[in-house]
Specification:
The chain is mainly β and 320 residues long. It has one domain: Glycosyl hydrolase domain, family 43 (Tachylectin-2, Chain A, 5 Propeller). Helices cover 9% and strands 46% of the residues. A hairpin with a 2-residue loop joins β7 and β8. It is globular.
């Protein structure tokens, strides 16, 4: 009989979960918030950790809030949120929400992509930081609608171009779609695009949509990508965490992909919240000893982290 013998837990929820929640805003800053989730984290060049938090105010409007950590688990919120643009176009583009930040360190700076939902459907705004993510400088919008879930590779291609993964929305799939890859000479103008991973390749847990979620990590087996996978069922929609390895030279080619999620909603803080049944990854940090921290939102309400080993994730990609 042809079936996968799942023989190990690839990721383990950290016992401190949720590592950030509305309660932390109340405890640390005396401020009431509705939720904090789907937040990106990165380990700086100096060894410190920074998280860019998606924070919902009581009326569900968004703030982007910084938090700092010495260990990537215990977080101290900053006194104030990040300053965002105030021009008319930003107000139109983000009229509904800005969300799901992604951080890449490249060219000696931190590049931050933020999805924006408003009068022009979804556009992605690019920011840069040269002060260890203490502040963000707006650069430009880097797509025509409707495209989202973008992450930039930490290295350029062999011919010197930047690479990004993305998820163009397809109306026939309910606004979801497959993972694509595009090239750019300057981080602004993008093209030469390839379809990378189709929803139909991951029946059933990703049949309703995919999205690149974390910055690709270079291994000897290929570029490791962590993605979110969507499955509609009778009563709700489940978001789980998938993994794949892309070719090092031609990263639009999938070398291995786990046909099962490496994390799916089970814990109470993932099953119940503003949006139920959600594990939504936005970042991973690979430590020098091979330990991996996956940062994910639980039920669109709280921020969580799961721990694992790089070798185990690669094993799942190759053998599940």
């Amino acid at each position: 009989m042809n079936y996968a013998k799942i023989d190990r837990a690839v990721l383990t929820r950290h016992p401190s979960n949720p590592v950030l929640s509305a309660e932390h805003f109340q405890q640390q800053l005396g401020i009431k918030m509705r939720a904090v989730y789907n937040s990106a984290a990165i380990k700086l060049q100096n060894g410190k950790y920074v998280m860019l938090c998606r924070t919902n105010q009581l009326n569900h409007l968004t703030l982007l809030w910084g938090a700092d950590s010495d260990d990537g688990v215990n977080w101290q919120l900053r006194p104030e949120p990040f300053a965002m643009p105030e021009d008319d176009l930003w107000k139109r583009v983000t009229r509904s929400v800005y969300y799901d930040p992604r951080i890449t360190y490249i060219d000696g700076q931190y590049v931050v992509l933020i999805a924006c939902e408003g009068d022009q459907n979804c556009r992605v705004a690019m920011f840069r930081s040269t002060d260890d993510l203490q502040s963000l400088q707006f650069i430009n919008y880097i797509n025509a609608p409707d495209n989202r879930n973008m992450v930039i590779f930490p290295e350029k291609s062999a011919d010197g171009r930047y690479l990004r993964l993305e998820r163009p929305s397809i109306p026939a799939q309910g606004g979801k779609g497959s993972i694509w890859l595009s090239h750019s000479p300057d981080l602004i103008h993008w093209g030469d695009s390839y379809e990378v991973l189709k929803t139909s390749q991951l029946w059933n847990f990703a049949i309703s949509g995919l999205g690149p979620s974390t910055v690709p990590y270079k291994t000897s087996e290929g570029w490791l990508i962590i993605f979110h996978a969507i499955m509609n069922n009778c009563t709700t929609r489940e978001y789980s965490v998938g993994a794949a390895l892309l070719d090092l030279e031609k990263p639009w080619i999938v070398r291995h992909v786990a046909k099962h999620p490496i994390l799916f909603p089970e814990a109470p803080y993932e099953m119940q919240g503003l949006v139920e049944h959600v594990c939504f990854p936005c970042a991973k940090i690979v430590e020098p000893n091979g330990e991996v921290k996956i940062y994910y939102g639980g039920a669109d309400t709280v921020q969580c982290v799961a721990m694992g080993k790089l070798d185990d994730i690669i094993h799942a990609c190759k053998h599940w």
